[in-house]
Amino acid sequence: MAEQPPSYGVGIGRLPSYGVGIGSRPSYGVGIGWRPEIAGFVEGLPGLRFAEVVAESVHAHGELPTGLQVLLDRGVTIIPHGVRLSLGGAEPVDPARVEHFAAVAERLRAPLISEHIAFVRAGGIEAGHLLPLPRSREAVDAVVANVRRVQAAVPVPIALEPIAALFDWPDDELTEGQFLTEILDRSGAQLLLDVANVYANARNRGTDPAELLDQLPLERIAYVHVAGGAEHQGLYHDTHTDAVPQPVLDLVGALCARHVPPALMLERDGDYPPAAALAADLDAIAKASGYPVIT
Amino acid sequence: MNDTWGISGPTFLTYFIGATIAIAIIAAVHRKALFRGDRSARVDNLGPQQVAYLNGGDRLAIYSSMGGLRAAGALGTGPGRILVRTGPLPSGVTPLDSAVYNAAGNGVRTRDLPNDQWVASAVEQLRDNLERTGLAVSAGKMREARLWVLAGLALVAIGIARVVAGIGNDKPVTFIVIATIAAFVVTLTLLRTRRWATDAAHKGLRDLRYKHNYLAPSNSPSYATYGATGAAMGVALYGGAALYSMDPAFAAEAEVQRIAATGGAAGSSGGSDGGSSSSCSSGSSCSGGSSCGGGGGCGG
């Protein structure tokens, strides 16, 4: 059982003018990505205070999945996480998608929403996948313009998540750190940092993952994704279907040594293991971050 | 006095329809009393196989056991669609699990399981327990409830006799034909109703289904995460379809039927279900009833 820190409050969601973090100062500790396949496991976590749900999987009106409703009734904060807005697209974000996102956020009484810094469609063609942007000033302009459109329609803050990429575009003008900082500074958005991505990117480029941490505005982190991955033919793949490896947990520790984020969550998207293995991942994240165990 | 049997068409029709409705209502009230069960009985501490029995009888209890054994890696299928053991029997299993596991060692098929001596006695033990605690409807009460089928059949027989007599008497019979068909449908409904859970258990099962909604096949639940008990409970609450969602290849190979787990008016589709075949014998009283129509040939 996790003890309740005095600052914790679920009512934050109704105060959209609040600033940084999920809500203001409250720390949510360790959470998990809610998926229908493991809804029963998530429901059974006694210390859970926040979870994330894929925004596109929730009906804006209609009935909520039972498992989500149970969590909401328990006072668990649920963050809608978009995967299809295509903030990095050259064209403006689709108003219908933004409207859906806003409705879902309201439905869940979410204090925050999140999306990726990526594009999923261009020229009317759907990639069906999150694609990386070239780190150019032009791309920064496009992302910032789209984030502002979302901010105009959704009353709660947005956190942006950089994605993993196995390659760099040849004409990058900015470093990863500069690119992200620029987008966050100009849009006023918060950061959703995926530690496994940071690890994967650094590992596949032969750089030090902790170096990137020093270049990012860590105080802007709303929450952190932690996921598993696996190595194939010398490359580390951020699969989200494997256990969280020790180097990623070490990086969580390195992050928390610099700045303790208000919340960290396990992101598991498939090939779900026995409950004990999921619980072990959650406990490992709690241990690495110093937050109370939630299992 | 041209009226068939000396009763005018409209009068006969009124009494006939009245009798049909009366039988339907009295049978329903009788059932309500018979199936009430023990209101203080609880289902939340039942095991998956007991829940399965309440939802779908012997067959679902066996499927639930198969689901648990499959998730534990103890059960699989071999050539000729027979069940085989694929691992050791997990510890802490129920007598039904042991019986199914034992039968799997003898190369039986899923549909033969209810006839296996061990399995049958394990199911019987399970059933007795549930009947004693007022959660399951006993075979005796089910038979009692079905007595109204006889009344229905008698009515149908009278209707047929009246139609025959009416035709002989050169009277229009359209309405009485329709009324007889209606009486037949009511009788069939009384006959086909098969339920295992008492009303007291029904409410608890509904709550249980809500509580375990995450096991519904529509969530494509991860049975690896929920383990053997989760798999068994999924089958118990959501029927054979849950086995298909958890392990489609195994479910198909084992010829598991997608029986619904409603516990409601699910028609028992023959097979090894002794209950429905015995009620079939009450259908033979139909021939007795038709002889009554022969006696009523006075209208001709």
SSE map:
The complex is a heterodimer of chains A (about 300) and B (about 300).
Chain A: E1 29-33, H1 39-43, E2 50-54, H2 66-73, E3 77-81, H3 95-107, E4 113-117, E5 119-122, E6 125-131, H4 137-153, E7 158-162, H5 176-187, E8 190-194, H6 195-205, H7 209-215, E9 221-227, E10 230-232, E11 235-237, H8 246-258, E12 263-267, H9 275-289
Helix pairs in contact in A: 4-5, 6-7, 7-8, 8-9
Chain B: H1 9-34, H2 48-71, E1 75-77, E2 83-85, H3 95-104, H4 117-132, H5 139-168, H6 174-192, H7 199-211, H8 223-238, H9 240-246, H10 248-253, H11 274-295
Antiparallel strand pairs in B: 1-2
Protein name (chain B): TIGR04222 domain-containing membrane protein
Keywords (chain B): Membrane, Transmembrane, Transmembrane helix
Organism (chain B): Paractinoplanes aksuensis
Written overview of the protein:
The complex is a heterodimer of chains A (295) and B (300). With 295 residues, chain A is of the alpha/beta class. Chain A has one domain: TIM Barrel. Chain A contains 9 helices and 12 strands. Chain A has helices at 39-43, 66-73, 95-107, 137-153, 176-187, 195-205, 209-215, 246-258, 275-289; strands at residues 29-33, 50-54, 77-81, 113-117, 119-122, 125-131, 158-162, 190-194, 221-227, 230-232, 235-237, 263-267. In chain A, a hairpin with a 2-residue loop joins strand 5 and strand 6. The longest helix of chain A has 17 residues, at 137-153. In chain B, 63% of the residues lie in helices and 2% in strands. Chain B has helices at 9-34, 48-71, 95-104, 117-132, 139-168, 174-192, 199-211, 223-238, 240-246, 248-253, 274-295; strands spanning 75-77, 83-85. In chain B, a hairpin with a 5-residue loop joins strand 1 and strand 2 (83-85). Chain B is elongated. The two termini of chain B are 13 Å apart. Classes of the chains: A alpha/beta (295), B mainly alpha (300). The A-B interface holds A 36-41, 43, 65-67, 272-275, 278 and B 210, 212-215, 218-222, 224-227, 230.
